[in-house]
């Protein structure tokens, strides 16, 4: 005999300035974000790399789903203007053949990106951004812009969704740790977690990482994304991406133009 349904949750007052956390894009549909603000977190490394490009003076970042889309966007832009364009991103964690830059935030220096358009594609990060396409506002978040991001959304009257990009179809702790740090800060600023437990899980993971030897940097190294990057010799990127507030800008993705710029 099937188990009976649980009783409905107790009625409670309407959540003020609601805060949702989604541990993986596949646990959501684009419609879930309608009318809300989405912070997309691919902490290792796409969010940090896009933020570095914007902080260091790139004209904009154009995120695309596939390598073919990136090449088509580059060609269309080159045909329409003389703006210098860089192709950036990764597949398998490394630079795509024929691209100018990989997905290391450390490569997106002012000297390299200032006044250039960066057309960018990564395995999970750019896909998560495009998954959020029905949101009213889409932002790019990570440890690198933790305080700037939480300050920017704390008092927004719209629902705020933190969307963790994951690694392919798996949940990644490296995205959940900065999500938890944002939850803690936003709750402290008066936002209210919605009833599901994803936000609570993220906050527990964050507090747990803070309390362990080696702290957050070590937890990021031990995460799925951290281990993958260490295996291909990119441990320095993990340490950089685990450091809070290195880049104090809030990149915003305007779907109509397809461009990410500084908010
Ligand atoms: C991604 O978007 O899949 C990641 O940023 C992968 C990576 O770190 O290169």
Structural notes for this entry:
- This protein has 263 residues and is of the alpha/beta class.
- The protein has a single domain, classed as ComB-like (putative 2-phosphosulfolactate phosphatase, Alpha-Beta Complex).
- The chain is built from ten helices and eleven strands.
- The protein has a seven-stranded mixed β-sheet, sandwiched between helices. Strands 3-6-4-5 form a four-stranded mixed β-sheet, with helices on both faces.
- The N and C termini lie far apart (55 Å).
- D-malate (MLT) is lined by residues 42, 44-46, 90, 93, 103, 122-125.
Q: What would you say about this model in short?
A:
This protein has 263 residues and is α/β, with parallel strands linked by helices.
The low-pLDDT segments are none
The side-by-side strand order for the widest beta sheet comes to 9-1-8-2-7-10-11
Strand/helix succession: EEHEHEEHEHEHEHEHHHHEE
The biggest sheet, with number of strands, parallel, antiparallel or mixed sense and barrel status, is: 7 strands, mixed
Summed up, the domain count is: 1
Which bin fits the share of residues in helices? Answer: 25-40%
| Overall shape | globular
- Output the structural class: alpha/beta
The second-level CATH architecture is Alpha-Beta Complex
Mean pLDDT: 95
The end-to-end distance, rounded to whole angstroms, is 55 Å
The CATH topology turns out to be: putative 2-phosphosulfolactate phosphatase
CATH superfamily, called what?
Answer: ComB-like
Bound molecules: D-malate
**Approximately how much beta-strand content do the residues carry?**
15-25%
Oligomerization category of the chains in this entry: single chain
CATH domain class name:
Alpha Beta
Number of helices in the DSSP assignment: 10
